[in-house]
Amino acid sequence: MNMIILPAPGAEQAAADLAVHLQALVGRVEARHFPDGESYLRLHDDLSGKDVVVVASLRDPDPQALRLWYLAQTARELGASRVGIVTPYLPYMRQDKRFQPGEAVTSVTFARFLSQAFDWLVTVDPHLHRRASLDEVYSIPAENVASAPAIARWVAAHVPEPVIVGPDSESEQWASDVAARVGCPFIVLSKRRLGDRSVEISVPKVEAHAGRRPVLIDDIISSARTMAVAVRQVRSVFKNDPVCIGVHAVFALDAMQLLEDAGAASVVTCNTLPHPSNGIDVMGDVAQAVRARVGSVSG
């Protein structure tokens, strides 16, 4: 497989992790800013005829977007046969409709931008709230890698007698999938949003599972307010403090402290975004998707 991995600035660890699974070379990307703020970019490897895989960590996407364009265009100019992007966390998926007149539907605009820059995309559990699939907004092949297998392996190895808990109806897809893979029960809490920073959460009857260790699972931990409320509610009805699992560790400045203050036994995330809480490796599953994608476009 004639593949080379190019890490976008800030994604060096993710690129290295992916390269181990793919047994692929990680190229050297030199990136800096001139005194006037403009970008300098240099790719040091021979890319002629190669399948280039750009790995990006897009927790803060705006400052990185233009550099992604430069990476893709420069790789093509240097002879790359195809240029794909692996962004384990795919931003801008939550702004998927015009809630107020004049608002930008940035999920569509960002999808158009990446579709023009790259030949294919691989990501992990994007926030598909009002979308059935990425194909609704991306015009390039876009692969959605499920985090549930990796989360289930971690839960089975680290949490005795778990019960999987989804903090709201949107999380039921992860809760039910993980529970089925682990072979344990699951419940889904009921959430009512009272404002941008306030939620009300209720817990169903859990008498049959009260002695188990609750494992709260959600896709994005950002402000952590929903999960913190869920932690408090779960602690009121279970004998054991909950383990909190997030797929994407976005984490606002005080998010981890909120969860600790609420009484979480531990907080663990997938390595889709670099964070000290990373403990669940999804890169093996990402590598399988990349290998299939590169193989399909090379055939």
Would you give an account of this structure?
- The structure is a single chain.
- The chain has helices spanning 12-22, 62-77, 106-117, 148-158, 172-182, 225-235, 255-262, 283-298, and strands spanning 3-7, 25-26, 29-33, 39-43, 51-55, 82-86, 120-124, 142-145, 162-166, 186-188, 190-195, 198-202, 213-221, 243-249, 266-270, 278-280.
- The chain has 299 residues and is an alpha/beta fold.
- It folds into two domains: 3-146 and 282-298, Rossmann fold (3-Layer(aba) Sandwich); 148-280, Rossmann fold (3-Layer(aba) Sandwich).
- The strands form four sheets. Strands 2-1-5-6-7-8 form a six-stranded parallel β-sheet, sandwiched between helices.
- Strand 3 and strand 4 (39-43) form a beta hairpin.
Question: How are the secondary structure elements laid out?
Answer:
Elements: E1 3-7, H1 12-22, E2 25-26, E3 29-33, E4 39-43, E5 51-55, H2 62-77, E6 82-86, H3 106-117, E7 120-124, E8 142-145, H4 148-158, E9 162-166, H5 172-182, E10 186-188, E11 190-195, E12 198-202, E13 213-221, H6 225-235, E14 243-249, H7 255-262, E15 266-270, E16 278-280, H8 283-298
Parallel strand pairs: 1-2, 1-5, 5-6, 6-7, 7-8, 9-10, 9-13, 13-14, 14-15, 15-16
Antiparallel strand pairs: 3-4, 11-12
Helix pairs in contact: 1-8, 4-5, 6-7
Key features of this structure:
299 residues; Rossmann fold; six-stranded parallel beta sheet; alpha/beta; 8 helices; 2 domains; 32% helix; 16 strands; single chain
